[in-house]
Specification:
about 180 residues, alpha/beta, five-stranded mixed beta sheet, three-stranded mixed beta sheet, 5 helices, 8 strands, globular, binds zinc ion
Length: about 180
C-alpha cells in the first residue's frame, strides 16, 4: 500500500511521465474511486477505500502499547449503528506481562469495583463472570503484535466508560465512549 501511495505521488508530480506502469496504477486507482484521479489527493483515496469496506458498519481502531496506554481516551459512535472496534496491540510484550483488552461498561457501572473483580478473574482473561451485567461489549485479551475485534451497537445516547481490565491497567487505560 505504501509503495502504491508513493507511485501515486510520483504520478501527481510527474504527470508528463506516462509509462505503462503508471497507467496500470491509474487503472487500479480508478477502480476504487470514480472521481478523476487528478483531483483526488492521496488521503482522500485512502478514506474512500476504508469506507468501501462495509458502509453499514462504523469501524474504529483502538491501539494499545507496551507503555500501558490506549491511543484514544474518547471515542464517538452513532447511536443504533453497528460498530466494529478493532483493538491493536502495537507493542512486543506477551499477553501474560502486558495483556490488553477493551471492555465497554454499561451506564452506571462502577469502574473501580469492576476492575477489582476483574483482577481476580485470571482464568477468564480478566473478564469477571460476577460482573457480567456491567459489560456491554468486550474483546479478547491480546499480547504484543496481535489484534482482535468486537462488534456492538449502542442503543441509547450517553457517555459510557471503557477500560483494559488487565490487573492495574485501568488506572491508565481507560476512556469514554460517547454515543450520540
Ligand atoms: Zn492493558
Amino acid at each position: 500500500m505504501r509503495t502504491f501511495m508513493l507511485n501515486l505521488k510520483i504520478i501527481f508530480f510527474m504527470k508528463k511521465v506516462v509509462s505503462v506502469f503508471a497507467l496500470s496504477m491509474l487503472f487500479f486507482a480508478c477502480k476504487n474511486d470514480k472521481k478523476p484521479v487528478e483531483t483526488t489527493t492521496v488521503e482522500d483515496t485512502k478514506e474512500v477505500v476504508e469506507e468501501n469496506v462495509n458502509p453499514d458498519v462504523v469501524e474504529i481502531t483502538l491501539e494499545a502499547n507496551d507503555n500501558m496506554q490506549f491511543d484514544k481516551n474518547e471515542i464517538k459512535v452513532p447511536v443504533g449503528k453497528e460498530v466494529k472496534l478493532t483493538l491493536k496491540h502495537t507493542g512486543k510484550m506477551s499477553k501474560d506481562l502486558m495483556g490488553h483488552n477493551f471492555v465497554l461498561l454499561n451506564e452506571g457501572a462502577d469502574m473501580a469495583a469492576f476492575a477489582a473483580e476483574a483482577m481476580k478473574a485470571k482464568d477468564s482473561d480478566y473478564i469477571p463472570a460476577s460482573k457480567a451485567s456491567d459489560i456491554m461489549a468486550h474483546t479478547d485479551l491480546i499480547g504484543g503484535g496481535e489484534s482482535t475485534s468486537v462488534t456492538f451497537t449502542v442503543e441509547k445516547p450517553g457517555t459510557y466508560e471503557y477500560l483494559c481490565s488487565f490487573p492495574a491497567h485501568y488506572a491508565m487505560m481507560k476512556g469514554k465512549l460517547i454515543a450520540e
